[in-house]
Amino acid sequence: MWIREVPLARPTKIGVVLAAVVAASSCGAAPDPGSTQGPGAISVRNCGVDLRFDRAPERAVTLEQSSTETLLALGLGEKMVGTAFPTAEIHPDYRAAYDRIPVLNPNELTAEQLRAAAPDVAVTSFGSNFAKDKVGTREELHELGLPTFVSAVDCPQHEPGQTPFERLFRDYENLGTIFGVPERAAALTAQQRQIINNAEAAVPANPHDKPSVMYLYSMTQGLPYVAGHNGIPSDISRILGVGNAFDDVRDEWPEVAWEEIAKRDPDVIVVGDLSDRGRLGDSAADKIRVLHEHPVVSQLTAVRENRFIEVPGIEMDPTVRSAHTLELVTEGMKSLGLLR
């Protein structure tokens, strides 16, 4: 994948960065002439943390592609001063806006690169990106005056009773509130709720036989990572009224043994395509070949009959594009005769 080369600013001393951050968010900052928000007007609760903004952020940095595309889907490209870690081709709908945003790092962003961009908010889909050995913890960054936003899908403990898609919609709502575009967030949510409603209308072709699905994300050192409980794939199965073969495993993406896959004997295997990462075995074709060659798994009916549904791997994680994979799985299972 082509990635724009962007010259990085010389690392800035923390005091200079804080001056920029404070200037964008402090109570004493000059008000935006087009804003009617007063001090303390913006407040949301995000993954157990209260975020407060005196006005809508103007300098957002996203830490990976999923959060980047979510902000672009909300029309916030002009509010972004940096992004990092693209893992797939940017969706065509967002390509033009994306090309105007500096790619601060084609891999994981460093603390120095984040600070040099002088953002007034940092956004990610994965809380693990805020770590001491990466850009810093949320606590450290908040002490420095930089608010951080983590997808609610990654924080189920703070959204009890909410499904992964509901938590994703909470992201849209909160981001819409933070950036002052609630109507865009509401429209995006309504559009994706309609996709869910359409999928919920599908029913098993055999009312006495609930099909099971295994979601294969990646293979590392020969062992597969599959979808466990409470992630986007788990929610796709719930919406369609089918079984997630590993839903009893509490980890979102557990590593499992091939023999355990054979024991669970899924009716369909959804295969995530991660070709753009460029690693051996990341493409859907590579994974399907391994399944056909494995001495045990190759004997499963799903493998022998090629009951595979290929989806973009990035859409198996929480992203504005996850609703598209719901559509792909729905149509795929219909074409296999398992849903109608």
From TrEMBL:
<dbReference type="InterPro" id="IPR002491">
    <property type="entry name" value="ABC_transptr_periplasmic_BD"/>
</dbReference>
<dbReference type="InterPro" id="IPR050902">
    <property type="entry name" value="ABC_Transporter_SBP"/>
</dbReference>
<feature type="signal peptide">
    <location>
        <begin position="1"/>
        <end position="29"/>
    </location>
</feature>
<protein>
    <submittedName>
        <fullName>Iron complex transport system substrate-binding protein</fullName>
    </submittedName>
</protein>
<comment type="similarity">
    <text>Belongs to the bacterial solute-binding protein 8 family.</text>
</comment>
<feature type="domain" description="Fe/B12 periplasmic-binding">
    <location>
        <begin position="59"/>
        <end position="340"/>
    </location>
</feature>
<dbReference type="Pfam" id="PF01497">
    <property type="entry name" value="Peripla_BP_2"/>
</dbReference>
<keyword id="KW-0732">Signal</keyword>
